[in-house]
């Protein structure tokens, strides 16, 4: 049996998925089921996004949008 291929997700997709939970008030399980992804993985994305938003607010910065974060990551490579 061939090994399973791991799916990879863009930074933009992760942020958008996390905001489906953060902005809507729906549960991680509901959104994960809707997107067809693992709830544990989505939970990590939500936690990371909440930390990023909090850190930006603490420093008085406006949080970067998903497209801006993806561009920064691309430029850093």
Automatic annotation (TrEMBL):
Pfam families: HTH_Tnp_1. GO terms for molecular function: sequence-specific DNA binding; transposase activity. Gene3D superfamilies: Winged helix-like DNA-binding domain superfamily/Winged helix DNA-binding domain (1.10.10.10). InterPro entries: Transposase_8 (IPR002514), Trp_repressor/repl_initiator (IPR010921), WH-like_DNA-bd_sf (IPR036388). One of its GO terms (biological process) is DNA transposition. This is Transposase.
């Amino acid at each position: 049996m061939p090994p399973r291929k791991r799916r990879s997700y863009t930074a933009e997709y992760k942020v958008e998925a996390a905001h489906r939970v953060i902005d809507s008030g729906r549960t991680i399980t509901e959104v994960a089921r809707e997107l067809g992804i693992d709830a544990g993985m989505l939970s990590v994305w939500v936690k990371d996004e909440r930390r990023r938003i909090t850190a930006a607010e603490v420093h008085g910065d406006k949080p970067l949008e998903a497209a801006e974060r993806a561009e920064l990551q691309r430029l850093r490579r």
